[in-house]
Amino acid sequence: MSNQKIDVTVNGTELTIREGKAPEIHEPKNLIVNGVLDSPLRYLHKRLKAFPETECHIIVDREKLSIKLVCNERFHVDTVITGSLQLHPDFTKLGINNGEYLTAFELADKFKMNRSLFETQNAAMEIVSKLKNFKAKVAKEIEKTTNDRGSQRLLQDQVVNSNLPENFNLNVPLFKGMGKEIIEVEVNVNPNDLSCTLISPAANDLIQYHRDLAIDSQLDQIVELAPGIVIFEV
User: Fold this and answer.
1) Residue 219: Cβ-neighbour burial (10 angstroms; 0-12, 13-18, 19+)
2) Which top-level group of life is the source organism from (predicted)?
3) What are the extents of the domains in the chain?
């Protein structure tokens, strides 16, 4: 006989005992959320009363462009809310400052397909034409020195002269959610195989500037909202 109901009274308290399969017991789960930079602040605005400030902390990793909020830090069930800045795809697709080397023809094709990222399409097609007709002259100067102790040293000075412009400008957003900026970009040529890579010290400076400005703004608001939360920089 299944699903029978038995009523039992113990010291005036009525207990109900049912036969059959009991509901499954589910353990609480960790809450792990990855969102935009202000996600930790938004979470605190709605859930701060659920967690004592002394059981929460913030981890800031500027290299990873992230702010991580950890709640229930002393318990086995964690709540971790991570907010991150994300570089814009229009900036990353060209491989600026990532050390990627391409042939002049490959770089020309990439520029041609992304000419909207230049200040003007004419500027884009001009550099595409120069890359398609890439010419370079490598000048080498070798100096060999010896001393009476048998030591030798070989010095090599190598210069690449090409028809490529020293620099050009792009009009691209650096981070998602931010507007476009004019950045100066240089084409570096590997003297060994004449492959090319793009570098931009200006873009690197701007990324660090906007990163620190955005992260510090979030931290100021978190401290104002919950001054008891400890903030760690890693």
Assistant:
1) middle
2) Bacteria
3) 89-144+156-201
